[in-house]
Amino acid sequence: MSRIRPFCGMETPPEDASVVVYGAPFDGTTSFRPGTRHASERMRIESWGLETYSPSLDDDLEHYAIGDAGDLDLPMGDVGAAISQIEQFSHECFQANRLPLMIGGEHSLSLGQFKAAFCRYPELHVIHFDAHTDLRDDLYGQPLSHASVIRRIADIMPPARIHSFGIRSGLREEWIFARENMDFHPFTLDGLEETIRSLAGVPVYLTIDLDVLDPAFFPGTGTPEPGGISYLDLQRAVHAFDGSRIIAADIMELAPPLDPSGASTAAACKILRELAIVLGRSLSASSQAC
Amino acid sequence: MSRIRPFCGMETPPEDASVVVYGAPFDGTTSFRPGTRHASERMRIESWGLETYSPSLDDDLEHYAIGDAGDLDLPMGDVGAAISQIEQFSHECFQANRLPLMIGGEHSLSLGQFKAAFCRYPELHVIHFDAHTDLRDDLYGQPLSHASVIRRIADIMPPARIHSFGIRSGLREEWIFARENMDFHPFTLDGLEETIRSLAGVPVYLTIDLDVLDPAFFPGTGTPEPGGISYLDLQRAVHAFDGSRIIAADIMELAPPLDPSGASTAAACKILRELAIVLGRSLSASSQAC
Amino acid sequence: MSRIRPFCGMETPPEDASVVVYGAPFDGTTSFRPGTRHASERMRIESWGLETYSPSLDDDLEHYAIGDAGDLDLPMGDVGAAISQIEQFSHECFQANRLPLMIGGEHSLSLGQFKAAFCRYPELHVIHFDAHTDLRDDLYGQPLSHASVIRRIADIMPPARIHSFGIRSGLREEWIFARENMDFHPFTLDGLEETIRSLAGVPVYLTIDLDVLDPAFFPGTGTPEPGGISYLDLQRAVHAFDGSRIIAADIMELAPPLDPSGASTAAACKILRELAIVLGRSLSASSQAC
Amino acid sequence: MSRIRPFCGMETPPEDASVVVYGAPFDGTTSFRPGTRHASERMRIESWGLETYSPSLDDDLEHYAIGDAGDLDLPMGDVGAAISQIEQFSHECFQANRLPLMIGGEHSLSLGQFKAAFCRYPELHVIHFDAHTDLRDDLYGQPLSHASVIRRIADIMPPARIHSFGIRSGLREEWIFARENMDFHPFTLDGLEETIRSLAGVPVYLTIDLDVLDPAFFPGTGTPEPGGISYLDLQRAVHAFDGSRIIAADIMELAPPLDPSGASTAAACKILRELAIVLGRSLSASSQAC
Amino acid sequence: MSRIRPFCGMETPPEDASVVVYGAPFDGTTSFRPGTRHASERMRIESWGLETYSPSLDDDLEHYAIGDAGDLDLPMGDVGAAISQIEQFSHECFQANRLPLMIGGEHSLSLGQFKAAFCRYPELHVIHFDAHTDLRDDLYGQPLSHASVIRRIADIMPPARIHSFGIRSGLREEWIFARENMDFHPFTLDGLEETIRSLAGVPVYLTIDLDVLDPAFFPGTGTPEPGGISYLDLQRAVHAFDGSRIIAADIMELAPPLDPSGASTAAACKILRELAIVLGRSLSASSQAC
Amino acid sequence: MSRIRPFCGMETPPEDASVVVYGAPFDGTTSFRPGTRHASERMRIESWGLETYSPSLDDDLEHYAIGDAGDLDLPMGDVGAAISQIEQFSHECFQANRLPLMIGGEHSLSLGQFKAAFCRYPELHVIHFDAHTDLRDDLYGQPLSHASVIRRIADIMPPARIHSFGIRSGLREEWIFARENMDFHPFTLDGLEETIRSLAGVPVYLTIDLDVLDPAFFPGTGTPEPGGISYLDLQRAVHAFDGSRIIAADIMELAPPLDPSGASTAAACKILRELAIVLGRSLSASSQAC
Does the pLDDT value for residue C2 go beyond 50? Predict the structure, then answer.
């Protein structure tokens, strides 16, 4: 008799895990086409067919203590409360010495996990993959939307510690802000390896808005933005973090209702697997080092 | 050169209209499958093919001063603010002696228009068509969701003045509340004509959750509930209000992304046309009476 | 090794058939959502699963000489030429003593087959099932569109010989024309049996716009019009022609791209089977009578 | 933190349940459009929004010991092995005094549960709701397909003990067989209440092919057959079994990929809830009687 | 209160614009899968989310006098009349010194705008991006279809002045014609910059059939042709026209019904924005030069 | 009057053909999302728009004796019988000196055609394009599934004669097996030309699982695997076989229900055309050589 299985065959109970994957099913501020609330549920189902073995890394998810904690029960219609709940859950992860890995949901939710991470690691840097700057002061008067999440982070932390890659859209004033205040790498991932090297040993929060991918490779998202990177570009970027000190991460903005072929969900699942192995490896290397 | 046209060919400028149709594109608290935020936009497009002439009524939308005011700019992710904005807009309608006719959007938004109506007409009754009781105290801690809108109205107004029809789903405690406190007509529209007659001259707020229709006739909604009424049942019910004193109305919960064939949008447009003509006639009859 | 099969298992070669089914894949004047050009192709594929045996009639398609002549090659973008080509093909059918049964395509195409029929049988009556009057003088200046086909027929033949059923939409002036000049039975099929009886022995052209069905039973059409008849209503109506003198017929306006579930195509195929058996029976009864 | 929930909120562990719901995700012999393998998975997800309270019965799923045992791991591509596995699982249910309630999957799978039931209750009758006779000797040489399941049952048990309702399609020879050998009620459910009364106290196997519903109410199935019953007809039929002695049941042929609006899945979930309550009540009444 | 907005936030009234965008919603000759008639309507809606700022050009649509004139009312079913109407509208643009920028619609429509342009600028060259040669003499006897538009242009103008890029499909005789008579650059955009340079100061008509893009980047078109260019290739090509003398342009063959994810519509909108800015810049540079 | 046409305009009767294309519509063991059973039917329809002329090869399908034998009638639910039937059909092809070119269906079916080929050419090599190793010993106890087809071939033939390209997924043990026993080229097609050269004159069986393509270029398949090759990579690979000695080939795993835009079907059709021309040329060159 089969049981409903966790993400990508993560069999470790969350309480024994050093990396905790969890779903944040909320898309209440999405301005155009909603659906990211279904991402974690759908990824669990579609990942049944995904092997735990990564041929590119020649490594296996099963080698590491990675668990799936299920989905948070987030209140639709109240983005502030949703962010607080995520912050609280992330705090508990950090206190229990577990690395939180959130599956969105809309990008605004990253703020909750970021706040908990920043509280624990005030010296934190943020590496940000996205098609959009996400630097608006507000969207239709709402300061906590997906279009403002990096601006809210920049309110809390020196923006020079935010390293954005792949951005190809935004208001003129957002681009001016980014160019003047942040470490800004528009259009591609060029410069990523150098950035990672320069942050060796520094705690890093990695936030991936999956729409950094070109819609050819990832149509299943609310605001597809042509001209992005390929799946293999993103996979190579994730691998580049091998050995770096990521202390929290998220993968946001898969919208399954916009993915009839299932290819975007498959891409999200595979990136999650590759990232989880990289995190598992890095933690296990650093703990051996101690 | 064609211009983008208003709902169902409503050519009267909103400022000259005695009935003002407007869209309320918000679905931030939708618990399962969102999409009602696109209803008004989609209905405007699909209603291009709809004649202004109603054969059943042998009457024409063009005979009455009915205007389309466009969509409100509602803040995604803040249902309270959205409801307030609708309340404010409805207040302005009442002050200008215009009957507001809202196109949702999720059912929670009815609260805003209801509050303005209740403020103007404290002796108001509510007639409510729905598949669901909508009487929850809260949903995942959120008191202002689509599942609670009638309960919120019952907090403000004596529940005995709420007349619900077509309900076929809800928690046991909701059904007990409805049976004990409200004028409750579950499963069908039986008793509607009698109710309308008994309310002759009394101001009535009519709120139509389109999921009162059976999913055969209206699949395009977030929580399809089998066992409902037919399109002709609903059309006849709308016609039954001819001559009654509706002072505000709404048509909620069409979700165009769940309506690939367009048939649900067509049903919503046609009900809107029939209702608008009935409202236009009733107003014009009563103003002649004065 | 399977072969691609004709409609509903019609094995008779068209040249030996007394009823010839053929496809007219054209939707060039469709004003809103095209797709009827794919109807015949899709019906052939979907009818693989349809038995030739009709339980309601307790009769079988295989008992009659009914053949499928394939699709006409109609020139997209020239509705006049398409209609002429259909007229020509129908002429040839009549000359070879074959009853033509067209699968549309848009309703305007009926004009071609009607003209050939009228040429052969000037005493012809038309029985017309539809949601729409189709009585416009023109649509955006085009006199030969789906919205005008019955008006064009009424230009040729006394409109009092046109018997329309199920109509529930149209411009006010179309309804006035219909009520004043035609034998007009709006909203339902009431009166059909009486009409058929009164036409005993008279040659009848039967034109079925499948949108006469309610969209619950037939969502797959370009202009779904709520408030129509059920599938069983239509099937019973087709059976009512058993023994009458239909000399040509058509089934129009299935749009497979708007039928993702396949249910509308299944309905069209089954109506086609029932109608073909009724035609086969009637012909065979009348030839035995001679 | 939410957990993935069982069908319709069935919280009883399967080992403590007197009714055991389980999924049989197999559609290997489906001749045209597959997808029923996804029915149980999808119904679990969609039933999150379904209340356990049935207003029609004024009763609640939570009052009875009904559990969800998850899905069987059935071998795709080997229908014989799948049927055997289901037979084995059903045997175990009967031995543990649990009533098995299967969610298909294709209709052929009913054979497995039937065989176990017949072994336990040789005096069994079968009540069969379906659009199709399912009486073929074989389909493309395969004797164990969805098109033959009732014939296979009739090979094992006197066909006079099979009571079929709602049938409206089949080969001529199937209809002859049914009329001559079975208790056959084509087209509608007329005669059901009488049949149920006549079987008072007799063990009954209830098999529901959901395509007995008209495609208007249930488009999401592989072979939609126009002309069927309404959702309320089926719900009333299920309620008619209240107090009867059903000893096993199944609900087959929901194909979620053909149900983009979700309405068919909602209908299947609600029928499952109503049936489960009826079974729970009947068992509990009979055990009190002892 | 929001208003329905023009393409990509083009706020200039058409009568004050130096570049006039307009929609040509016609697909009457489309041979296989129609839908391009909905392109302009859908692009207006989807472009709500598109910023006016182009990061690649570091320039803004708002800097230039670009207006949206809405859609032409084209007669379905009469491609000749549709082309004439476009020719007439383009004439008026040229007379008012406005650059016309058409959004198709099917590619045949380019003929209308081309004729007006050729009348005004007899020394014109055409630059043509496409997957298909579009050089057929006729398609099913129709000389004015999407498959013949370049041939019709070559009937009017010396074919050596037509520069085709990206072509990867066609009949053998079309390829022979192209190779012998035109400036033909099959498969890629190689040679474009050189061509543009060689045409400095020469009036150029730019016609973009969006199916020049690979279906990975642009699935939403009627005849997807694998093996095409990427979105970034096309965007770079558009930028390459900066400073050249385009006097009319069109973007054709987006078919929104074939674009469920919205990614193709997003690509079309972004190309339109980039092209409009390039046109605005070039006009403004040349007028300053005068 | 048009007739239903064979694949890509292959007019040669199968009995006169030297290359015989045929469909194998079976997906009974598909573990996740079925639909490949519809591939050949859909490719025939979609290939109506595909020219027989290949611009890349500057050659034409019509130059060679290539016929379409239609679809085999495979028994759903019995993969062993389906494979045997394909083996039998392939035997007959080889006996009649015809090269069989199968359109799947699921990949397991390749075993049937392989067995017949191996019987005729025991010195055979296999060239295998795929995203997945397909080397499982069994899948849920089923040894004959799509996940095991290469392992079954490796049971029959020395695995060192299997040359796999493009693989990017599988269990760890499958990758170990492949690396130790086969000629294994993971992730890309690198090394293909060299392999082809080394096999000059050697009979080659070419099996293409179309999911070797990246889902950007080929979303329409049951298990999309991100990180694959582009359409042009695959087309160039097919061209690389020009002059080599392919004696049988197959193209598997297109799932049309997962291809709403039609782009994947278009890619499959075009690869089929290119491959058929390459096969036709090679046969004709070798027969001239004799």
Answer: no
Name the CATH superfamily, with its identifier, for domain A14-289. Ureohydrolase domain (3.40.800.10)
Strands B53-54 and B99-103: unpaired
* CA distances in angstroms from D155 to B54, D115, D136, D149, listed in the order given: 58, 11, 12, 10
Phi–psi pair at E60, nearest 5 degrees: -135, 135
Q: Which residues pair with E209 in a beta bridge?
A: E252
Under 8 Å between Cβ of A138 and A31: no
> What is the C-alpha to C-alpha distance for residues E184 and E196, in angstroms, rounded to an integer?
14
The CA distance from F29 to the nearest CA of chain D, in Å, is 4
Contact state of C217 with D219 under an 8 Å Cβ cutoff: no
Contacts of A120 (CB under 8 A, 6+ apart): A91, A94, A247
Q: What is the rounded end-to-end Cα distance, in angstroms, of chain C?
A: 43
pLDDT tens-digit series, residues C107-133: 999 999 999 999 999 999 999 999 999
Q: Is residue F271 within 8 Å of F254, Cβ to Cβ?
A: no
Alpha carbon dihedral D255, D257, D261, D262, in 10-degree steps, equals 50
D219/C261 touch (CB, cutoff 8 Å), yes or no: yes
Residues from D contacting C (CB-CB < 8 Å) are 31-33, 167-172, 175, 186-187, 214-216, 219-220, 223-227, 258-260
Chain B hits for C186, CB-CB cut-off 8 Å, are 55
Ordered mean pLDDT values, 10 residues apiece, chain A (290 residues): 65 92 89 83 87 96 94 86 97 97 96 98 98 90 87 97 98 97 98 98 98 97 95 98 97 92 94 97 80
- B269 in Cβ contact with B46 (< 8 Å): yes
E254: Cβ–Cβ under 8 A, 6 or more apart, which residues?
E36, E39, E42, E43, E103, E104, E210, E220, E221, E264, E265, E268
What percent of chain E is helix, strand and coil (3-state, nearest 5)? 45, 20, 40
Q: Per DSSP, which regions of chain B are E strands?
A: 19-23, 53-54, 59-60, 66-71, 99-103, 125-129, 162-165, 183-185, 204-209, 246-252
Task: Check: CB of residue D168 under 8 Å from CB of residue D186.
Answer: yes
Which of A37, A78, A84, A107 is best to mutate for the B interface (most B CBs within 10 A)? A78
Element housing B268 (H / E): helix B263-289
Chain C residues with CB under 8 Å of D215 CB are 217, 261, 263, 266-267
pLDDT means over runs of 10, chain E (290 residues) = 65 92 89 83 87 96 94 87 97 97 96 98 98 90 87 97 98 97 98 98 98 97 95 98 97 92 94 97 80
CA distances from B247 to A179, B64, B123, B242, B244 (A): 54, 16, 12, 13, 9
Q: Where are the domains of chain E?
A: 14-289
How many other CB atoms sit within 10 Å of the CB of residue B160?
A: 11
E/D Cβ contact: 3+ pairs below 8 Å: no
Is the N-terminal amide bond of E105 cis, ω within 30° of 0? yes
- Strand ranges (E), chain F: 19-24, 53-54, 59-60, 66-71, 99-104, 125-129, 162-165, 183-185, 204-209, 246-252
Tell me what pLDDT residue D33 has.
Answer: 76
Contact call for residues F257 and F38 (beta carbons, < 8 A): yes
DSSP 3-state assignment of C22?
Answer: strand
Q: Please report which residue ranges of F131-206 form alpha helices under DSSP H.
A: 149-156, 172-181, 192-198
Q: From CA F265, how far away is CA F268, in angstroms rounded?
A: 5
Q: What is each CA distance from F89 to C235, D98, F24, F73, F102, in whole angstroms? A: 43, 49, 11, 11, 10
With contact defined as beta carbons under 8 Å apart, do F69 and F21 qualify?
A: yes
Q: What is the pTM of this model?
A: 0.91
Measure CB to CB from residue A172 to each of E53, E217, E270 and give the nearest one: E53
The Cα C213–Cα D231 span in angstroms is 19
